[in-house]
Amino acid sequence: MDGLTAKELKDRLFYQPKHAAAQMTEAEIAAADSFCEGYTDFLDEAKTEREAVEAALKLAKANGFRKYEPGTYYPPGSKVYCENRGKALILAVTGTVGVSEGARITASHIDSPRLDLKPNPLYEDKELALLKTHYYGGIKKYQWTAIPLSLHGVIVKTDGSVIKVRVGDEDGEPKFVVTDLLIHLAADQMKSTLAEGVKGEALNVLVGSRPFDDTDEAQNVKLNILRLLFQKYGITETDFLSAELEAVPAFKACDIGFDRSMIGAYGHDDRVCAYAALMALLDVDEPEHTTVCVLADKEETGSQGNTGMDSAFLAFFLADLAKAQGLDAAAVFSASRALSTDVNSAYDPNYPEVFEKNNTSFLNYGVVLKKYTGARGKSSASDASAELIASVRALLENAGIPWQSGEIGKVDVGGGGTVAKYIAQLNVDVVDMGVPVLSMHAPFEVVSKLDVYATYRACVEFYKN
Ligand code: MN
Ligand code: MN
């Protein structure tokens, strides 16, 4: 190293993450922008976990994926999907070496924070009809007032028929809203904390205001709404009890910035990694290792429930693949490697105090490799081994993919979790990796197009190696 200038020596010795644009050719940047056009379409189509499964299945079927039949032997290069109750999905391409060598698994989640309707939601108060909600996932409640909302989900009747609901996203459709207190009367509210200013029981969605007729009988506005719902969906009030209806932001995904370098949308966390991983899997042909893309539900409430990653659906799927090849599931899990593909907090210039700049992720600096998540003393973290980080680092570096390391924020300021620990339970080597996000969990989140593309490329490399 003799004779090197300070700059040359720094280039050789320092960890110096760079803006992705400085590491990419014009053609690669154009490819990233065009990749993200498909992503924004996916976002507008898939605002709930059920819609994300439908959208993913449509893409998968168009790319030759067939329904997985348990107990079947699949030759190398077979493309299969396994749907879990319409809310989670596993897609796989069988490898040339057999699952005894382990699988390459990515797991992203397709649920996002939102307002779920309560089982008995509809009521009338002073001739306004409203829907009671119970928020889902970690939200700042004040962010969900005074923005246009749409309603998505299903109503299931006792005869088993499923009525799909999706209203408020298309031009010409009515939207809904949670009203906020006018500033003129908000003196007390403004003195309360942000956590207390809007209460959970105040997140009631306004859905009507005109009575059924001009008699002054009670609940005529509610009656009119039920009449309209009966006309449109054939349902009565009792049918709400067997429904899953979610109020989500009615915004469409759009470019952000004069340079159109970013995307603003509801639900980047974690449909951005879900889409990147899915598109990477669709590009896989005859991989060496069996590649598996999991799109999971319920991450935002802790991954519990049979469609979340704390359930055995991935384990059962891998065990079944193993059995068809005459193998023991435990051996397959132990030889497998996984990416828990989920978003990370991006450094926000408006709130520098919560980030530790040497160990945070930045917008446009590429896909984020996270050694661990968790809170306080790494509580609830799946801390990836140095060996695994090294191998993922190697494949990112060899492929020239912009990447960075990052923690969620400063020690003891907060924290978060992902599905990594549930995959680790299977004795699979797993590390967190994903897209940096601004305004995470807000109704409108921001990501950079170059980071989205880097994450897609990282998944391609991971599946291949
Ligand atoms: Mn997430
Ligand atoms: Mn989240």
What does this structure look like?
This protein is of the alpha/beta class and 465 residues long. The protein folds into two domains: 6-112 and 266-464, Aminopeptidase, CATH 3.40.630.10; 114-249, Aminopeptidase i, Domain 2, CATH 2.30.250. The chain is 29% helix and 24% strand. The strands form five sheets. A nine-stranded mixed beta sheet has the order 1-2-3-14-4-15-21-17-19, sandwiched between helices.
**What general form does the structure show?**
globular
> CA-to-CA gap between the ends?
33 Å
- State Rg: 24 Å
**Ions, cofactors and other bound molecules:** manganese (II) ion
CATH architecture of the largest domain: 3-Layer(aba) Sandwich
DSSP strand (E) fraction? 15-25%
In which range does the helix fraction lie? 25-40%
Output the CATH class name of the largest domain.
Alpha Beta
At the fold tier of CATH, the topology name of the largest domain is Aminopeptidase
Low-confidence stretches: none
In order across it, which strands form the biggest sheet?
Answer: 1-2-3-14-4-15-21-17-19
Largest sheet: 9 strands, mixed
Beta strand count: 23
Tell me the count of domains: 2
The CATH homologous superfamily of the largest domain is named Zn peptidases
Structural class: alpha/beta
Mean pLDDT: 96
SS field, number of helical segments: 12
